[in-house]
Amino acid sequence: MKKIAIIGATGSIGRSALSVIRAHATRFRVTALIGGGNAAALAAQIAEFQPPVAALRDEKAARALARDFPGTKIYGGETGIAECLPASGAEICVSAFGGIAGLLPTLTAMDCGMDIALANKETLVAAGEIVKRRARLRGVKILPVDSEHSALRQCLAGCEISRVRRAIITASGGAFLHWTNLSAVTPAAALNHPTWSMGKKITIDSATLANKALETIEAHFLFDLPYDKIEVWIHPQSVVHGAVEFIDGALVAQLAVPDMRLPILQALSGGEHLPDGVPPLTLAQIANLTFAAPDAEKYPLLRLGLTAGRQGGLAPAVFSAANEAAALAFLAGEIRYPQIAASVEKCLERVPSGEATLENILSADRAAAAFCRAEIERS
Ligand code: MG
């Protein structure tokens, strides 16, 4: 039985991961459940999966949980999370905290020798070089949970990157694909995603295509792909998740129903094709697939994010933090939709110089989020 730790157990990916584990109970066992502040949801998961250890970022809630579950050792706070991981004895860690909060626990899990089933985007976007170096040093694998990167990994099938002409990741185009005037859209409309059911912030990122900028940066680090070789295609049906064109002209694509349980199962299994993943595609589902290049005018955050990726250094961390602050402000009704990109652009004018060390990344993240918040309050 493969032992699994889940960071971000109560979020959207964490819950999907647990449903995969539940369906493959003879193969996988949960040995650590780690949550942020949702004590009630974590309690229900501890009751069902009975892991030897668990942790909650909220220390007070963690103490209350410890009283309710004497059979599970419960840790609290950031240091508790760092102590819980080595105590879990897990072989693989699902990294699914939202935001930059996922970075340090992911590095801790690597230091414990765990392979990483990576769902947290900021880990690679903000600290790609550091994370890759750490994976090499500890001899652990980074297995993408994102559907596009899981698709690319399956298409590449271990082939040398020098044999790749281009890699393609697809975007549904989000809730506003067919809208022409985006100045008055509401958070509720943006949250109405046509094909995927996900957390709120990532659904906004899907509408703005900030998500594809983050995923392009991730693909660059995950597969050592130069930015010139990564393309984003709009594909509203979300059936083709990624494709790789090789230098001989062969274009290999991965198709599946849009369901996160498949990339999660792929990551947990270490890239094996196990039974009982997701329902098969019907002929009707693949009969009418369409593809188009994204409209640069309509999706300014894609351009901004790709520029930040190419710039490298601390720019991807600034892009990611500013985009998060702006997307959350839009969700809270504080700014209008076009101001998400406008605020991010302002933040990117102030990327600090300096090496992408862990300390500089974390401080660039804080500074960009604070600057973006101040911009929003001024507007
Ligand atoms: Mg994705």
Query: Unreliable runs, pLDDT <50, ≥5 residues?
Result: none
Structural class label = alpha/beta
Count structural domains.
Answer: 3
Number of DSSP E strands:
11
**CATH level 4 superfamily of the largest domain:** NAD(P)-binding Rossmann-like Domain
Strand order of the largest sheet: 4-3-2-1-5-6-7
Main β-sheet description: 7 strands, parallel
Q: Which small compounds were modeled alongside the protein?
A: magnesium ion
β content, as a range?
Answer: 15-25%
Oligomeric status: single chain
Tell me the name of the CATH class of the largest domain: Alpha Beta
Query: From the 3D coordinates, which CATH architecture of the largest domain would you assign?
Result: 3-Layer(aba) Sandwich
CATH topology of the largest domain: Rossmann fold
Key terms:
379 residues; alpha/beta; Rossmann fold; hypothetical protein PF0899 fold; Rna Polymerase Sigma Factor, Chain: A; seven-stranded parallel beta sheet; four-stranded mixed beta sheet; 48% helix
Concise synopsis of the structure shown:
The protein is α/β, with parallel strands linked by helices. 48% of the residues lie in helices and 15% in strands. It has helices spanning 12-23, 39-49, 59-68, 77-88, 103-111, 121-138, 147-156, 187-190, 200-208, 210-223, 261-268, 283-286, 300-311, 315-331, 338-348, 358-378; strands at 2-7, 28-35, 53-56, 73-76, 92-95, 115-118, 142-144, 164-171, 230-234, 240-246, 251-255.
